[in-house]
Design goal:
The complex is a heterodimer of chains A (about 550) and B (about 425).
Chain A lengths: L1 E11 L4 E11 L2 E3 L10 E4 L4 E4 L1 E3 L7 H9 L1 H6 L1 E2 L8 E2 L6 H10 L2 E9 L4 H9 L5 E7 L4 H8 L4 H15 L3 E5 L3 H6 L18 H15 L5 E4 L9 H10 L5 E3 L7 E2 L7 E2 L1 H9 L4 E4 L6 E7 L2 H6 L9 E6 L3 E10 L4 H16 L6 E2 L13 H9 L1 H8 L4 H6 L11 H16 L15 E4 L5 H6 L3 E4 L2 E5 L2 E2 L7 E4 L6 H13 L21 E4 L8
Parallel strand pairs in A: 1-4, 1-5, 6-9, 9-10, 10-11, 11-12, 12-13, 13-16, 16-20, 25-26
Antiparallel strand pairs in A: 1-2, 2-3, 5-21, 7-8, 14-15, 17-19, 18-19, 21-22, 22-23, 23-24
Helix pairs in contact in A: 6-8, 10-12
Chain B lengths: L10 E2 L11 E6 L2 E4 L5 H9 L7 E2 L2 E2 L2 H14 L3 E7 L2 H14 L1 E3 L5 H12 L1 E5 L1 H7 L2 E5 L2 H4 L4 H5 L6 E5 L17 E3 L6 H12 L8 E2 L2 E2 H13 L2 E7 L8 H15 L4 E7 L5 H12 L5 E4 L2 E4 L6 H6 L5 E6 L14 E5 L11 E4 L9 E4 L6 E4 L12 H18 L1
Parallel strand pairs in B: 6-7, 6-18, 9-10, 9-14, 10-11, 14-15, 18-19, 19-20
Antiparallel strand pairs in B: 1-2, 2-3, 4-5, 4-20, 7-16, 12-13, 16-17, 21-22
Helix pairs in contact in B: 2-13, 3-11, 3-13, 4-10, 8-9, 8-10
The chains are: A alpha/beta (about 550), B alpha/beta (about 425).
Chain lengths: ~550, ~425
C-alpha cells in the first residue's frame, strides 16, 4: 500500500521540520524518502495547509494491570455514567477515569496518540499487565517494571553483593516481565510501609538493615545506565504530596551524581511550605534545577479539575491520603514481597486552595522549564486527570489568554500564591510536537517512532489548524497507525493493533539460582512462574519489538 | 539469554482451587505425562474429573464439531437475551465468551461468583486493605482464619503458610479437625469459639475493643468477652496481622455485613499497626474471569451487555436468579475447570462449551467439547489474590485432545456471523 500525503505543514522536530510544507510518502506502513517520479501511490490525500505530526506518545499513563483493574472495580460511578456500545466492529466498554482496555485504545487514537506506556508494572503482576495491554487496540505500548521495594533487591544491597549482582537481577526481571524500562517508586518506602513506617526520607535509615532510599536509588540508576537501558531510571520520588517535599526532590537529583534520571509527575513533588497555609509552589526551584541539569528529564503529572481516581504503587502515600478519598472508599494492597498498590478516588476542585495551587504548580513547571525535549506532557493518568483531558491541557500551554481566564476562576488565595499570571510563554506547535512526540521517543529509545523521517513507522496525525487548540488536538482530521487510517475527525474508523516494546539486557545465569532460592523461601512461588514466554505475545495482535541496549555509560 | 528459553518447568501449575500452587509433579502413566496432585484433594478431584470423556452432541446425539457449531450459532442468532454463565475456564476462554457476548448482548456471570460479589460489594462501598499469598507467607506474625472453609476449600493453605518462628495461627469460630491444617508445622493454633452467623457483631465488638472502648456483656456472638479482648489485643500488638476469610462460605443472613465488619476492623488496625485481609476464593478461575471481564468491559461479572454498553447490576444479573426468573432464552455455559453441573432449565436451550469431566443436569441442546487448560493446551488462570496470573503449560499437547475453549468459541462467533449473513 502506497500513500502520499500532499502539501501538509509538517512539524517533525526530530528531523528539523517546523511547519515546512512537504509531501509525505508511505509504503507498506513506513515513511519513505521522496521516491521521485515513477512511484505510483495507491492513494493521494490532499492535506494542503493542514498541520501534520507523528503520532503522539504518552510516556507515563496507568492504563493496564492489577491496580488499574482494581480502580475500575472501585469506580462504579465512572463506569455506570460513561458507557460505550460496541458498534461498527468496535468493542463495547466503559469509563473515563479508568476506561476499559478497548475503550482506552479508541480514546487515545481519536486524539492522535499512537503509543502509551504503563509506568508501574509490578513484576509479580506482569503477565496480567501485558494481557491488559494486549487487549488495548490501536496504540503501541510497553511497561516499566517497578523495583526498589522488592525484598530481593534490598537484600542484595544490604548484603553488599555488588553492583554486578544488582545489574544481573535487574536484567533478569526486565527479561522475565517483558519490561521497557525500570521505575522506582518511593524508594524503600513501600517496603517500609509494610514494616509500619509512615514516612521515609531520602537519607533515613529504612527498616531493611538500615538501608536508605539514597542507596537504593543510586544502585538502580547505575544498573539502568550500565545495562544500557535507553530510558533512564524512571523515578517517583519519596514524600509524594507532602508540603516541603521539594527538598527531597532536589536531593534526589543530587543523589544521582550526574547519572541520567527521569523524574515523574513532578507536580506532586514540587511543594514548599511557605505562606499562611504552609503549602506553596516550589516549581521555580525545580525548573531552575532542570534547566541546568542536562541529564535530567521530567514529566509533569498535571492535575485538572474534576473526578478521577489516584492509582499508585506508593502505598505509603496512598494510605496517608486515604482520608481525602472522594467518594469515601479506598484500597491498599501489599504485593508479593515485590511492591504494592493503592487506589484513592479524588475530586480536584478549583475552589479548593490546595487543588487550585496544584493546578498552578503543574502549569508553572511546564512554562518555566525551558527545554521541551526534557519535559513531557502527562497528567499521570488517571492520577492528575484522565488522559482524555490532554487537548485541554495543550490549550492551557498554548493560549495565554485562555490560561488567565481559568486562573481568574480558581481559589483566590491560590491565584495570589502563583506566578502563573506573570508568565507570558505560550508553547508553539513545534514545542508541542517535541514534548508529545520527538522527545518521548528519544527518551525511550524508540528510533522509528515519534518522527516522520524515512524508515519511521507511519504513525501520522493530520490536524486542521484552529485557534481553539483544545478543539484542534481533540479531533484530528486523520490518524494513521502503521500507514492505516484508524481515525477520522476524532472517531475511530478502523481496527489495528500496536506493537509491544521491550528492552532485554543480558544477565549472568548465575543470578537465576539466587532469585529462585529467594522466591522459594520467601513467597513459595517458583521463579519460572513469573517468566512470560514469547508465545504469550503470539496472539496476532502486533509484534513484540525488542529494542537494543546502548553501550555502557552512553547517553 | 532469553527469559523464554528456560520457561519449561519440571512441575505443573494447578488451576483448581485458586491457590495456584505451581509445584504439581508431572507424572508419567499409561496415558502419558499428567500433572500429579501433590497430595491435595482439590487437585486430585480436578485431575480425576478431567479423565472423564466429553462428546460433541446435538440434542444428545453425536455430531461433528462443525455441525454443532452451526446448530449453536442458529440458537444464538435466534436468542434475544442470552445468559453467558459458567465461565469456569481459563482467561482466554472467558475473553472469547465476551467477544461473543459483545455481538449478541446478554448477561455475564461466573458459576461461583457469590462470594466474590460479597467482597466486591464491600470494596465498592468501603474499600479494602489486602495482602497477596506471598506477602502473607513471608511477613505475617499472626494469621486469623475465619471459619473452616479457609482451609477446607483451600487444602494447601496451611502448608503454604508454613511456620517460621513467631507465626501464630488463630481459628476464629471453628475447631480444626485432623487434616485441616496439614503441613502446618508451627505451634498448635489457638481456637476462639464464636458463632460465625453473628460475624458482623463479632467484628463490631473487635473494632470497639481495638479502639479502646468497653464492650458490655459476658459473651458476644458466641465468643466470651475475655477471649475477644485477648484477640483484639493480639491483633493490635501484631506487627503484620492477617485476617483470612472465604466469603463464598460465610454463613449468616447477610454475609456482606460480615465482610464489611472485617474490612473495617482491618482498616482501623492500620492506624497504628499493619493488618491485612486475605479474601480467599477463586476456584475454577473465578478471579481470572473477574479480571478479564473487568478490564474488557470496565464493569465486571454480573454485568449485562446492552445496546448502550456494559452495565453492572450484581443483584439482577446473578445467573441463578436470571434462570429462576425466566429472564433468558438461551444459556451459553462454558466450563473447562469443573464448577457446578451445567443447568438444565425448563424450556430454555443450553449450549455447553465443556471440557472432559463436565457434569450436566440434563441434556444440553448442543455440547461443544473443549480442551483441558494446562493439559491439552497452554492457558492462563489467576490466583485467588488477583495478582498472579499463572501460565498453565500444556503437559499433553499434541495427544489429540479437544481444541481450546477460546478457539471453540471463536469458531462459534464465526459461525454466528455466517448465519446472520445468510439471513
Amino acid at each position: 500500500m502506497r500513500i502520499k500525503l500532499a502539501g501538509g505543514r509538517v512539524y517533525d522536530p526530530a528531523n528539523g521540520f517546523a511547519g515546512a510544507t512537504r509531501d509525505l510518502f508511505v509504503e507498506d506502513g513506513r515513511i519513505v524518502a521522496d521516491p521521485g517520479h515513477g512511484w505510483r501511490p495507491d492513494e493521494v490525500i490532499d492535506v494542503a495547509g493542514k498541520v501534520v505530526m507523528a503520532g503522539a506518545i504518552d510516556i507515563h499513563s496507568h492504563i493496564g494491570g492489577g491496580k488499574v483493574n482494581i480502580a475500575r472495580s472501585l469506580m462504579t460511578e465512572d463506569h455506570r455514567d460513561h458507557r460505550f456500545a460496541g458498534v461498527d466492529g468496535l468493542r463495547s466498554g466503559s469509563g473515563v477515569a479508568t476506561p476499559s482496555t478497548f475503550t482506552t485504545g479508541y480514546r487515545y487514537a481519536e486524539m492522535g496518540y499512537t503509543a502509551a506506556f504503563e509506568p508501574a508494572m509490578v513484576a509479580s503482576n506482569a503477565r496480567h499487565a501485558h494481557m491488559e495491554l494486549s487487549d488495548t487496540p490501536l496504540i503501541d505500548k510497553g511497561a516499566y517494571v517497578m523495583l526498589g521495594n522488592d525484598d530481593l533487591l534490598l537484600r542484595l544491597l544490604a548484603e553488599d553483593r555488588g553492583q554486578q549482582a544488582v545489574n544481573d537481577y535487574v536484567a533478569w526481571i526486565m527479561g522475565a516481565t517483558r519490561a521497557m524500562a525500570v521505575k522506582v517508586v518511593n524508594p524503600g518506602g513501600i517496603f517500609a510501609f509494610k514494616e509500619n513506617l509512615r514516612q521515609l526520607g531520602l537519607d533515613e535509615e529504612g527498616p531493611y538493615r538500615g538501608l536508605t532510599p539514597r542507596t537504593i536509588l543510586r544502585s538502580l540508576a547505575r544498573a539502568v545506565r550500565e545495562l544500557g537501558v535507553p530510558h533512564p531510571l524512571h523515578v517517583h520520588c519519596n514524600d509524594l504530596g507532602i508540603p516541603g517535599n521539594i527538598e527531597t526532590t532536589l536531593a534526589t537529583v543530587a543523589a544521582a551524581d550526574g547519572m541520567p534520571l527521569h523524574l515523574t509527575h513532578v507536580q506532586f513533588h514540587s511543594y514548599g511550605r511557605e505562606g499562611d497555609r504552609r503549602f506553596s509552589s516550589a516549581a521555580a526551584r525545580l525548573a531552575e534545577l532542570v534547566n541546568r541539569t542536562p541529564t535530567l528529564s521530567v514529566d509533569v503529572g498535571q492535575i485538572l479539575f474534576g473526578q478521577t481516581v489516584t492509582a499508585s504503587g506508593d502505598t505509603m502515600s496512598q494510605h496517608r491520603n486515604s482520608g481525602l478519598a472522594d467518594p469515601a472508599k479506598w484500597v491498599c494492597m501489599d504485593i508479593e514481597c515485590d511492591g504494592g498498590c493503592g487506589l484513592v478516588p479524588f475530586r480536584y476542585r478549583d475552589r479548593n486552595f490546595v487543588n487550585a495551587l496544584q493546578w498552578a504548580i503543574g502549569l508553572e513547571l511546564f512554562l518555566l522549564i525551558e527545554d521541551p525535549w526534557r519535559v513531557f506532557l502527562t497528567t499521570d493518568h488517571p492520577n492528575g486527570a484522565p488522559f482524555t483531558s490532554y487537548p485541554h491541557l495543550i490549550r492551557l500551554l498554548m493560549d495565554r489568554s485562555f490560561r488567565e481566564e481559568k486562573l481568574a476562576t480558581i481559589h483566590p488565595a491560590a491565584a495570589a500564591a502563583t506566578v502563573l499570571g506573570s508568565i507570558r510563554r505560550e508553547y508553539s506547535l513545534c514545542e508541542i510536537a517535541i514534548m508529545t512526540r520527538a522527545a518521548p521517543a528519544r527518551s525511550l529509545g524508540l528510533e522509528d517512532r515519534g518522527h516522520l523521517g524515512p524508515g519511521a513507522v507511519a504513525d501520522i496525525v493530520v490536524y486542521t489548524e484552529h485557534a481553539d487548540r483544545e478543539r484542534m488536538f481533540g479531533t484530528p482530521d486523520l490518524v494513521f497507525k502503521g500507514g492505516r487510517l484508524i481515525a477520522r475527525d476524532g472517531q475511530v474508523v478502523a481496527m489495528a493493533w500496536g506493537d509491544t516494546h521491550v528492552v532485554r539486557p543480558g544477565w549472568d545465569p548465575a543470578i537465576e539460582r539466587v532469585i529462585g532460592e529467594h522466591m522459594a523461601g520467601r513467597t513459595g512461588l517458583r521463579a519460572h512462574s513469573l517468566r512470560i514466554g514469547n508465545d504469550e505475545f503470539a496472539d496476532g495482535r502486533g509484534a513484540l519489538v525488542v529494542h537494543p541496549c546502548r553501550k555502557e555509560g552512553g547517553s | 539469554m532469553d527469559a523464554a528459553a528456560s520457561t519449561a518447568a519440571a512441575t505443573a501449575t494447578c488451576p483448581f482451587c485458586g491457590l495456584g500452587c505451581d509445584d504439581l509433579p508431572i507424572v508419567t502413566g499409561p496415558q502419558g505425562p499428567r500433572p500429579g496432585d501433590a497430595g491435595c484433594p482439590a487437585a486430585a478431584a480436578g485431575l480425576e474429573r478431567w479423565s472423564q470423556p466429553v462428546a460433541c452432541t446435538i440434542a444428545g446425539a453425536p455430531a461433528a464439531p462443525a455441525d454443532a457449531a452451526v446448530a449453536a450459532a442458529r440458537l444464538l442468532a435466534a436468542a434475544r437475551r442470552p445468559l453467558y454463565a459458567g465461565l469456569c475456564a481459563e482467561v482466554e476462554a472467558v475473553a472469547a465468551v465476551l467477544a461473543l457476548a459483545d455481538r449478541t448482548g446478554g448477561v455475564i456471570d461466573h458459576a461461583l461468583s457469590d462470594g466474590h460479589l460479597r467482597n466486591l460489594a464491600v470494596l465498592q462501598d468501603t474499600g479494602a486493605v489486602n495482602a497477596t499469598l506471598g506477602e502473607v507467607r513471608a511477613r505475617s506474625d499472626l494469621v486469623v482464619l475465619v471459619g473452616p472453609d479457609t482451609v477446607r476449600r483451600f487444602p494447601r493453605l496451611a502448608e503454604r503458610l508454613h511456620a517460621p518462628p513467631g507465626r501464630a495461627l488463630v481459628c476464629l469460630g471453628w475447631t480444626p479437625e485432623p487434616g485441616d491444617l496439614a503441613g502446618w508445622t508451627g505451634a498448635p493454633p489457638e481456637v476462639v469459639e464464636a458463632d460465625l452467623t453473628a460475624l458482623p457483631d463479632l467484628a463490631a465488638a473487635l473494632r470497639a475493643l481495638v479502639a479502646g472502648r468497653p464492650v458490655a456483656g459476658g459473651s458476644i456472638a458466641g465468643a466470651s468477652r475475655p477471649a475477644l479482648e485477648a484477640l483484639a489485643a493480639r491483633l493490635a500488638a501484631a506487627r503484620y496481622g492477617i485476617i483470612a476469610w472465604a466469603a463464598g462460605a460465610l454463613p449468616g443472613p447477610v454475609p456482606e455485613l460480615a465482610v464489611q465488619g472485617l474490612v473495617e476492623l482491618i482498616r482501623d488496625l492500620n492506624r497504628t499497626t499493619r493488618c491485612l485481609g486475605l479474601p480467599l476464593g477463586g476456584a475454577a478461575n473465578l478471579t481470572g474471569a473477574h479480571q478479564v471481564v473487568t478490564w474488557q468491559s470496565g464493569c465486571g461479572l454480573r454485568s449485562a451487555i446492552t445496546a448502550d454498553g456494559p452495565l453492572l447490576d450484581p443483584d439482577h444479573n446473578a445467573w441463578s436468579r436470571v434462570l429462576a426468573a425466566g429472564e433468558t432464552d438461551l444459556v451459553v455455559w462454558t466450563a473447562t475447570l469443573g464448577g457446578p453441573p451445567v443447568p438444565h432449565p425448563r424450556g430454555v436451550p443450553v449450549i455447553a462449551v465443556a471440557a472432559p469431566g463436565t457434569a450436566f443436569d440434563g441434556t444440553p441442546a448442543v455440547v461443544l467439547p473443549a480442551g483441558r487448560p494446562g493439559l491439552d493446551h497452554d492457558a492462563t488462570v489467576f490466583r485467588t489474590d488477583g495478582t498472579l496470573a499463572l501460565r498453565l503449560r500444556a503437559v499433553a499437547a499434541g495427544e489429540g485432545g479437544h481444541p481450546p475453549a477460546a478457539r471453540v468459541l471463536g469458531d462459534l462467533l464465526a459461525a454466528l456471523e455466517e448465519v446472520r449473513h445468510a439471513h
